[in-house]
Specification:
Elements lengths: L13 E5 L5 H12 L2 E7 L3 H13 L4 E5 L5 H15 L4 E4 L15 H26 L8 E6 L3 H4 L6 H20 L5 E8 L6 H4 L5 H5 L11 H12 L10 E4 L4
Parallel strand pairs: 1-2, 1-4, 2-3, 4-5, 5-6, 6-7
The structure holds NADP nicotinamide-adenine-dinucleotide phosphate.
NADP nicotinamide-adenine-dinucleotide phosphate binds next to α1, β2 and α4.
């Protein structure tokens, strides 16, 4: 754990755990959630400074917040992430399963097996470990208080990402199936499971694919003719997580400007 604090003694605030909360969509969600009455646990892997900046911004909104280092593909680290969050903030109401990596842009016939394994380790195995731990702790059938899981998939799951990163797209296809199956399995146990499928969103992830200008370059192919912002995705995540979506489960919501 990098840092923690209890800035408020309000018991009515809900608790949200966000994987990959130090940048991009996760960071925007943490900040918006803080304004909407959540205390937040901000997970990251490498960039502690960025995570601590998000935590400071959340506290400035009146939330209790902590930053926790954990690689979502490491089972032990995910268990510690949940334990530290519960110890500091109390039972978790909402999990945003957001941590994800992208692969470098390349033709499919050049992929190494290591590359494919790496993206599946984080985006699929990691997402499943995070969901499993959420269910173990939230399920009313094992004494939990119920809750809401929002998986962050991608428009890539239905576009397939040819000539870019088919392995990434397939990993998000797995996230969609995970969402549909798990939603049905735990529907009677107080847990809703949904997914958001963002389109081209302006974050640092595209630089990791080797194309920092990707959103700008592809904007003309989007029906709305522009990329989306992390805040626009966070708005939909917050709605999906909230009681306003109380009859919504197993749903995949595209936030993609019509793409
Ligand atoms: P981003 O700016 O690259 O941020 C990724 C976040 O995930 C960072 O906080 C990073 O932390 C964390 N992370 C990476 N690997 C991790 C791991 N193994 N364990 C824990 N945390 C890890 O990405 P983003 O654009 O906000 O994307 C967030 C999610 O939205 C991803 O699942 C992505 O696939 C999905 N998405 C994004 C877009 C888009 O256009 N941006 C579109 C569709 C879907 P560190 O920096 O500390 O490593």
């Amino acid at each position: 754990m990098a840092d923690s604090s209890n800035n408020n003694d309000q018991t009515s605030r809900k608790v949200m755990l966000i994987t990959g909360g130090s940048r991009g969509i996760g960071a925007a969600t943490a900040l918006m959630a803080s304004r909407s009455g959540y205390d937040v646990s901000v997970n990251y892997t490498r960039d502690e400074e960025a995570a601590l900046e998000v935590v400071a911004a959340c506290r400035a909104e009146g939330a209790s917040a902590l930053a926790v280092r954990a690689d979502v593909s490491d089972e032990g680290e995910v268990i510690d992430l949940y334990d530290q969050t519960e110890a500091d903030l109390g039972p978790i109401d909402v999990v945003i399963n957001n941590a994800g990596i992208i692969s470098p842009i390349a033709r499919f016939d050049t992929y190494s097996v290591d590359r494919i394994r790496q993206v599946f380790e984080v985006n699929v195995i990691g997402a499943m470990i995070v969901c499993r731990e959420a269910v173990r702790r939230m399920s009313t059938s094992s004494g939990g208080i119920g809750g809401s899981i929002v998986n962050i998939s991608s428009a890539a799951s239905y576009l397939g990402s040819p000539n870019e990163f088919i392995d990434y797209a397939a990993s998000k296809g797995a996230v969609d199936s995970l969402t549909i199956g798990l939603a049905k399995e735990v529907a009677e146990e107080g847990i809703r499971v949904n997914a958001i499928r963002p389109g081209l969103i302006d974050t640092e992830i595209h630089a990791a694919a080797g194309a920092p200008d990707r959103v700008e370059r592809l904007a003309a192919n989007i029906p709305m003719a522009r990329g989306g912002s992390a805040d626009e995705v966070a708005e939909s995540i917050l709605w999906m997580a909230s009681d306003a979506a109380s009859y919504v489960t197993g749903t995949l919501l595209n936030v993609s400007g019509g793409r």
